[in-house]
Design goal:
Layout: E1 3-15, E2 18-24, E3 37-42, E4 51-56, E5 59-61, E6 69-74, H1 80-86, E7 93-100, E8 113-118, H2 125-134, E9 139-144, H3 154-160, E10 164-167, H4 175-189, E11 193-198, H5 200-212, E12 216-221, E13 236-240, E14 246-250, E15 257-259, H6 265-279
Parallel strand pairs: 8-9, 8-11, 9-10, 11-12
Antiparallel strand pairs: 1-2, 1-7, 2-6, 3-4, 3-7, 5-6, 12-15, 13-14
Helix pairs in contact: 4-5, 5-6
Bound molecules: FE2/S2 (inorganic) cluster.
FE2/S2 (inorganic) cluster is lined by residues 225-228, 230-235, 250, 252.
Length: 280
């Protein structure tokens, strides 16, 4: 079930390089879970933008004092649509559809988990970590970003979860320190599941490493999803089926959470690079 509402913006604040927005959205908080998406209409009569952007829900509250709210975190430097969103002011109204997609699955029994997030993709992870902890799972977090201003949720995660490793780029970039943090995190607690949220480049690094260390990976795809509802087919993701054949699913409606081991990462990365080239 999804809810389509016109949400009034009731709070906006800068968090490092990102913008944290809170909208009134009755009915979403009752049904949304960590990993779900929200599709947001961007643009107006004067902006020349007519599209949607789809981002993970950072947090929700059920109907109460403010009638139910959803929180999102956007990077205004990512593209003009995200800039338009980041520039909204309190009392502006935006059309929202949520919750969309597939949420993070929770283990049936308490298992040690490592939760990994990069840049704004990390937005839902403190929520997911709390859900895991409430199920009795020991949880550690790895929060990564391209610099200190692009780390999201470290303070909240330290306050609510405690075990947080922060990763920023080393001399050779982000991938090597990210790999080292994931390796150490999985080994330290013998993690059975790694939940990771990031762009494909980082997920393609984290997934094979975590699987090679014996963990199951559940990954949140954080690539462009124009509609978020499964209609535009702009977010195809190659996955390997049970019959070992590769087929395409839609990252927004069949994901954004998928088993990392199912994704054919080299094919996916090549497809994303081709799209970028075509747009240039
Ligand atoms: S973003 Fe349109 S189908 Fe996924």
């Amino acid at each position: 079930m999804t809810v389509a509402v016109t949400g009034e913006l009731i709070a906006t604040r800068k968090v490092g390089a990102f913008t944290h927005l809170t909208f009134v959205a009755p009915g979403v908080g009752e049904i949304a879970r960590p990993g779900h998406l929200v599709s947001v209409a961007v643009g107006d009569a004067v902006s020349a933008l007519v599209a949607r952007r789809t981002v993970p829900l950072h947090a929700v509250t059920p109907s109460g004092t403010y009638g139910g709210t959803v929180d999102i975190v956007v990077d205004g430097d990512r593209d003009p649509g995200m800039r338009w969103l980041a520039d909204r002011r309190v009392h502006d109204e935006v059309a929202l559809i949520a919750p969309l997609g597939r949420a993070f699955p929770l283990p049936q029994e308490p298992l040690p988990c490592l939760v990994v997030g990069v840049d704004t993709a990390a937005a839902p992870l403190a929520w997911q970590a709390r859900a895991l902890r409430d199920r009795g799972c020991p949880v550690e977090l790895v929060v990564a970003g391209s610099d200190d201003r692009h780390l999201f949720g470290v303070v909240e995660a330290r306050r609510t979860i405690g075990n947080v490793t922060v990763v920023t780029p080393g001399e050779t970039g982000l991938h090597e320190p990210l790999r080292a943090a994931v390796r150490a995190g999985v080994r330290r607690q013998d993690a059975a599941i790694v939940y990771a949220a990031a762009r494909a480049q980082e997920l393609a690094v984290v997934t094979p490493l975590a699987e090679s260390l014996g963990a199951v990976t559940q990954v949140a795809i954080h690539e462009d999803m124009p509609c978020g509802t499964g209609l535009c087919s702009a977010c195809t993701l190659p996955v390997r089926g049970r019959d070992d054949r590769v087929h395409s699913i839609r990252a927004c409606s069949d994901g954004p959470i998928v088993r990392g081991a199912r994704v054919v990462w080299d094919q996916y990365l090549a497809g994303l690079a081709g799209e970028l080239e075509a747009r240039a």
